[in-house]
Design brief:
The complex is a heterodimer of chains A (138) and B (151). Chain A is mainly alpha-helical and 138 residues long. Chain A has helices at residues 9-29, 35-62, 68-93, 98-128. In chain A, α1 packs antiparallel against α2 (35-62). Chain B has helices at 7-10, 23-32, 41-49, 54-58, 123-138, 147-150; strands at 18-21, 63-66, 70-77, 91-98, 103-111. Chain B has a single domain (15-150), classed as YaeB-like fold (2-Layer Sandwich), CATH 3.30.2310. In chain B, a hairpin with a 3-residue loop joins β2 and β3 (70-77). The termini of chain B are far apart. Classes of the chains: A mainly alpha (138), B alpha+beta (151). Chain A binds chain B through residues 53, 60-64, 107, 110-111, 113-114, 116-117, 120-121, 125, 131-134, 136-138, and chain B through 61-67, 70, 72, 74, 76, 84-85, 88-89, 96, 112-113, 119-120, 123, 126-127, 130-131, 133-134, 137.
Chain lengths: 138, 151
């Protein structure tokens, strides 16, 4: 687990998001055009988007105090999410329900991309620290 | 009598920051304003910053590098014309906030989506922004950014 400064809820949210993605993929693969299923997939996408935004905002709000070790932990923990999310998006885009859930899927993609961006910032400014701009500051 | 926290001696919490821009940022504004999806970029930027004091900007949590008196900060700015919700998607702004002068230099600003959208600021663009900042500051060519003139 991360240090005391980092939200204990975040590991739980990450685990929950990972299982939601896998469950939604199963749902899509077994789906047809029934309204109930479309609504269920939409709800799942919106719920996952909510989790992703929660994780993102938690990281953003504590970015300044996150240590190198915490950053490494978050990156390692979250990394599988991107592969799973990409697979889910591919599956939904080729499913019969795609047009019906497109708006929710687009929002999910934006949210996952935003999360990826902040993970990249953690890697760049906390872990690697390979850009030092102090020589430009007077 | 209630004594004020010490930091208030250093930073005035009500101070309205003075904004500066480097030339590449101003060029970006002109490009984005011509697109349907980002034609209100300057209004969005102004709207976001008009609610923030210098202290709030300086204390922003997405701190990329801390130089003591100056902080290198990243902000997610909502886009009113992108169709996203709140800050999701939106714009990104990279800032240098200097507490000595209570000023903010906008080093980079771009949309996440659309024709000029970027997923992130590349290392090359970031280095170029700092180089441009140093050159333009040295030549006294960093204009105070008048938001109204860009709207």
């Amino acid at each position: 687990m991360c240090g005391a400064t980092f939200s204990p809820e975040i590991d739980q949210k990450i685990n929950s998001t990972l299982s939601s993605i896998e469950n939604t993929e199963k749902l899509v693969l077994g789906s047809d055009e029934h309204l109930d299923l479309i609504l269920e997939i939409k709800d799942s996408l919106q719920e996952m988007s909510g989790h992703v935004v929660f994780i993102l905002e938690d990281i953003e709000s504590q970015f300044a105090s996150i240590t190198k070790e915490e950053a490494e932990h978050i990156i390692a923990k979250l990394f599988p999410l991107f592969g799973l999310a990409k697979k889910l998006v591919t599956v939904i885009m080729s499913a019969v329900v795609y047009e019906s859930v497109k708006a929710s899927l687009d929002q999910f993609v934006i949210d996952v991309e935003d999360l990826y961006e902040i993970l990249n910032d953690l890697s760049r400014y906390k872990v690697r620290k390979d850009s030092d701009f102090s020589s430009y500051i007077s | 009598m209630i004594s004020l926290p010490i930091f208030l001696d250093v930073i005035n919490p009500k101070a309205v920051p003075v904004f500066y821009t480097i030339s590449t940022v101003r060029e970006g504004f002109e490009k984005y304003k011509k697109t349907n999806s980002h034609h209100r970029c300057c209004e969005d930027l102004y709207g976001y910053f008009s609610d923030l004091s210098f202290t709030e900007i300086f204390a922003h949590s997405h701190l990329l590098q801390d130089f003591g008196h100056t902080r290198y900060i990243k902000m997610r700015i909502p886009c009113s014309t992108c169709g996203g919700k709140g800050k999701r998607g939106g714009y990104r702004a990279y800032l240098l906030a200097d507490k000595r002068s209570e000023s903010v230099v906008i080093l980079a600003f771009y949309p996440k989506t659309g024709k000029f959208g970027k997923s992130d600021l590349s290392k090359e663009d970031e280095k170029h922004a700092f180089e441009t900042y140093k050159v333009e500051k040295g030549r006294n060519e960093l204009p105070v950014h008048d938001f109204a003139s860009f709207i």
